[in-house]
């Protein structure tokens, strides 16, 4: 399942160099970028007056091309530049603009504004006065567009190097960059459009795409569709949420391995009493088990540790979440059965003790490599990383998901999809997508239980 490719600044430069080596001049790429952006702006804003803010590099060059092409279509265009143009292509684009260039610090507001100050070449935050003026002009415009990236964001991490306003549209050029999907940068625009400029962008990192799911075959039965076990612990509610999500994930059967008397909450879920370690061990001895979930409500005491040890020893593909991740602690890189999925949020990820720095994509990728498991590093932007380097990034999930129990639902859902397909990377991607879709369908102020109710409709939408 691959969506749009996501390239770092260095990878984008390499792709650009490859295009240039194949015979497309750099200036031609700039003309294509400007033309693609101008078309998007024309469709949105038509002949409303427009102010283009141009920086000193090639992002500014794109801005001059946009200005020229829209003026030729009858748009009243003004250009304000932040100093002189410094690259060969941007000098050429500036020379081809046959209108005046105002100083940036004196530019008056307009109905439409184009931010072509900085793109992938930004190396430090904007000066305060520049960032303030960009924010003020953008806030006063009815239509606002960021060319390639909102000026002030770090391309590879999505961090803000200086404060930036909210744009209506971000026009990514050639391919997506990490800042288009990682927060906080990914929250700086309402709509994202990726303009094709003829650069071949192939990479292992993609935006999470909508999954293609399949119906069960007529020959299928409950075990062939995937048997999931959910290991209960001291807080039974969390385990029950995971079990109920697994039961609505498309899997064939769910067993709830209860640490206490409580039943699983759905009659279709088979509750197995597994209070003692030996009961738990024997309930995990079943070759038909396709995925085992541990962590939601497991607890963190000695008993929980022993239950986790029994789970790690069972050899079935696991989905480890919540307390299981905390208990794993810095021993996370060892002893995880092949084909497993770990679903930490940032706090749990830090407790796994990898001591990784850098952007979310590289940290998740390195953790996947070290554990030989699929890592779902959760958040407003969730990064799904496989040990072989494949990555899918999901952004734009409902902020209402930040409520108790939604992580337990994701863990159960991931286990269900893992039991269905046996492929941990696609299972994790499907689970993240379905979770986001269920949240979209649930609307506002929902409880985690409501997400589970939306899962069948979310699945039906992808069959
Ligand atoms: N990579 C590609 O394939 C293409 C890139 N294009 C455009 O080129 C852009 C990248 O161009 P550049 O590499 O020239 O980079 P930018 O235009 O993003 O900016 C680089 C310039 O800004 C200066 N600078 C960096 N941070 C600054 C700060 N905080 N304050 C003041 N000056 C600062 C640098 O010294 C350099 O002169 C892309 O974002 C895109 O808009 C397009 O023209 C077409 C194709
Ligand atoms: K920009």
From TrEMBL:
- Report if keyword Oxidoreductase is assigned: no
Residues bound to (6S)-NADPHX? 58-62, 119-125, 148, 238, 297, 345, 408
| Named cofactor requirement(s) | Mg(2+); K(+)
Q: Where does AMP bind?
A: 378-382, 407
Give the cofactor binding note.
Binds 1 potassium ion per subunit.
Against CDD domains, the record matches this protein to: YXKO-related
Q: Which residues form the YjeF N-terminal domain?
A: 12-205
Which Enzyme Commission number(s) are on file for it?
4.2.1.136, 5.1.99.6
UniProt xrefs under Pfam families? Carb_kinase, YjeF_N
Q: Which family does it belong to?
A: In the N-terminal section; belongs to the NnrE/AIBP family. Belongs to the NnrD/CARKD family.
NCBIfam families xrefs: yjeF_cterm, yjeF_nterm
Q: Give the protein's biological function.
A: Bifunctional enzyme that catalyzes the epimerization of the S- and R-forms of NAD(P)HX and the dehydration of the S-form of NAD(P)HX at the expense of ADP, which is converted to AMP. This allows the repair of both epimers of NAD(P)HX, a damaged form of NAD(P)H that is a result of enzymatic or heat-dependent hydration.
Q: What is this protein called?
A: Bifunctional NAD(P)H-hydrate repair enzyme
The taxonomic lineage of its organism, from the top, reads: Bacteria, Pseudomonadati, Pseudomonadota, Alphaproteobacteria, Sphingomonadales
Gene encoding the protein: nnrE
């Amino acid at each position: 399942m691959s969506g749009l490719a996501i390239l770092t600044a260095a990878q984008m430069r390499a792709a650009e160099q490859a295009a240039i080596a194949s015979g497309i001049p750099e200036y031609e790429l700039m003309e294509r970028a400007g033309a693609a952006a101008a078309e998007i702006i024309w469709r949105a804003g038509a002949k409303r007056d427009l102010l283009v803010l141009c920086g000193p590099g090639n992002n500014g060059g794109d801005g001059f091309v946009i200005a020229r092409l829209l003026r030729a279509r009858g748009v009243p265009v003004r250009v304000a530049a932040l100093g002189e143009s410094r690259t060969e292509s941007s000098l050429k684009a500036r020379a081809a603009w046959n209108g005046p260039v105002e100083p940036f610090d004196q530019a008056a507001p307009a109905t439409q504004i184009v931010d072509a100050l900085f793109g992938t070449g930004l190396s430090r935050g904007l000066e305060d006065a520049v960032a303030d003026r960009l924010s003020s002009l953008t806030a006063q415009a009815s239509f606002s567009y960021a060319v390639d990236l909102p000026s002030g964001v770090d391309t590879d991490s999505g961090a803000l190097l200086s404060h930036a306003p909210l744009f209506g549209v971000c026009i990514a050029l050639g391919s997506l960059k990490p800042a288009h999907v990682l927060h906080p940068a990914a929250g700086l625009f309402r709509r994202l459009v990726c303009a094709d400029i003829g650069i071949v962008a192939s990479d292992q990192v993609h935006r999470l795409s909508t999954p293609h799911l399949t119906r069960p075959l007529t020959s299928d039965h409950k075990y062939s569709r995937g048997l999931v076990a959910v290991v209960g612990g001291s807080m039974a509610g969390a385990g029950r949420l995971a079990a109920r999500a697994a039961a609505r994930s498309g899997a064939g059967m769910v067993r709830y391995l209860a640490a206490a008397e409580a039943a699983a909450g759905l009659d279709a879920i088979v509750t197995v009493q597994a209070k003692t370690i030996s009961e738990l061990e024997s309930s995990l001895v079943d070759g038909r088990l396709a995925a085992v979930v541990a962590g939601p409500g497991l607890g963190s005491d000695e008993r929980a540790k022993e239950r986790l040890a029994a789970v790690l020893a069972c050899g079935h593909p696991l989905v480890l979440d919540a307390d299981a991740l905390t208990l794993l602690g810095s021993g996370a890189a060892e002893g995880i059965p092949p084909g497993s999925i770990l679903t930490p949020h940032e706090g749990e990820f830090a407790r796994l003790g990898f001591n990784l720095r850098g952007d979310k994509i590289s940290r998740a990728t390195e953790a996947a490599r070290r554990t030989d498991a699929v890592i779902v590093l959760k958040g407003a932007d969730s990064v799904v990383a496989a040990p072989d380097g494949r990555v899918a990034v999901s952004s734009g999930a409902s902020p209402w998901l930040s409520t108790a129990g939604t992580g337990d639902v994701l863990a159960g859902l991931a286990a269900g999809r893992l039991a269905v397909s046996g492929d941990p990377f696609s299972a994790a991607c499907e689970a993240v997508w379905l979770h986001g879709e269920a949240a979209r369908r649930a609307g506002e102020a929902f409880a985690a239980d409501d997400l589970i109710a939306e899962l069948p409709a979310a699945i039906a939408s992808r069959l």
